[in-house]
Design goal:
By secondary structure, the protein is of the alpha+beta class. The protein has a 4-stranded antiparallel sheet, with helices on one face.
Length: 69
């Protein structure tokens, strides 16, 4: 199981967090999604999750991925 962290621009409220979480959870292999609004970070846990697909899902929710760690 791997853990990936994304710095996301524009996360300012609970509704933002819910939108991102909903989009990312739809991806195959994602087991958990944690959104930290204050830090602007999204942590994704799962097996063999493609970071490009996660970034695309975050962008589909309407937010910009600034960095992947």
């Amino acid at each position: 199981m791997t853990e990936q962290r994304y710095h996301v621009i524009g996360l300012i409220c609970v509704r933002c967090a819910a939108a991102v979480e909903r989009e990312v959870r739809r991806l195959t292999g994602v087991e958990a999604v944690a959104v930290d609004i204050v830090a602007g970070k999204v942590t994704v846990t799962g097996g063999a999750v493609d970071e490009n697909r996660v970034a695309a899902a975050i962008e589909d929710a309407g937010y910009e991925v600034a960095a992947v760690r």
